Amino acid sequence: MNRFNSIFEAVWPWLVALPLTTWVYFCPFTIPSDRSGDFINGSLTISALLIGFLATSKSIMMAYKGNRVFNAIKASGHLKKLIGYLKFSIYSAMGFLGVTFTMYFGITDLKLCLWTLFGSIAAASFLRMIILQSKLIGE
Asked: For 24, 109, 115, 137, which has the most beta carbons within 10 A of its beta carbon?
């Protein structure tokens, strides 16, 4: 992998999240109060699913410790980066969960911006993990 691809791989979740968050900040939207519970519950479900899938992915990676593919990734020096991406994905999904939970106590413009930031980072970093893991299994 060349240096540009490596840098792009590392930062593209931010390249998705920051413009979306900026757009929400400058073009605020409101959630109808009669639908806010559905919005919050749906967001909590999505974040919990992301965390569950990522935790399962981590468990599968740990089960392959000592495997030929695992050893090849480790020997290439990419294992630390892959684990870092996985941890970042889990933490961003947890941040999304936390911000969404605070919305039960009132939805403000700041919370919508944070919700957009964490939600888009969680989604993009989850997608990054899917892409990388697909490459590992040769899809």
From this structure: 115
Q: Is the pTM of this model over 0.70?
A: yes
Residue 5 is assigned to a structural domain of this protein: no
Q: Is 15 part of a structural domain of the chain?
A: no
Q: Is residue 55 part of a domain?
A: yes
Residues listed for the chain: 139
Distance CA 92, CA 106 (A): 21
Residue-wise burial string across 9-37, b where 16 or more C-beta atoms lie within 10 A, e elsewhere: eeeebeebbeebbeebeeeeeeeeeeeee
How many CB atoms lie under 10 A from the CB of residue 6? 12
Q: 133 CB contacts (<8 Å, ≥6 apart)? A: 57
